[in-house]
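Q: what sequence does this backbone want?
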């Protein structure tokens, strides 16, 4: 039924020794699609590790999702989990 090609492009390990990967399904960047639909934040902590073009696309797609109030951006007080934990 699904039979789609999935690829994880892992380029490093984080401080907890977990792989940091970009995941693609049928050559589509899953993380970018989540950002585009307002279902995820662009994690800027690793932005410096992205290629310039990729970084600009992620930034622009997040800005567009915010402007259109898609997904999490419907909430004017939307807050990334890390910021929420820090503020507790």
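A:
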């Amino acid at each position: 039924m699904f039979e789609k090609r999935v690829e994880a492009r892992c380029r490093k390990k984080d401080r907890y020794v977990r792989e940091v990967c970009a995941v693609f399904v049928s050559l589509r960047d899953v993380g970018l699609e989540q950002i585009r639909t307002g279902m995820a934040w662009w994690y800027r902590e690793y932005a410096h590790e992205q290629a310039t073009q990729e970084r600009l696309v992620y930034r622009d797609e997040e800005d567009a999702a915010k402007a259109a109030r898609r997904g999490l951006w419907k909430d004017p007080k939307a807050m990334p989990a890390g910021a929420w934990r820090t503020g507790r």
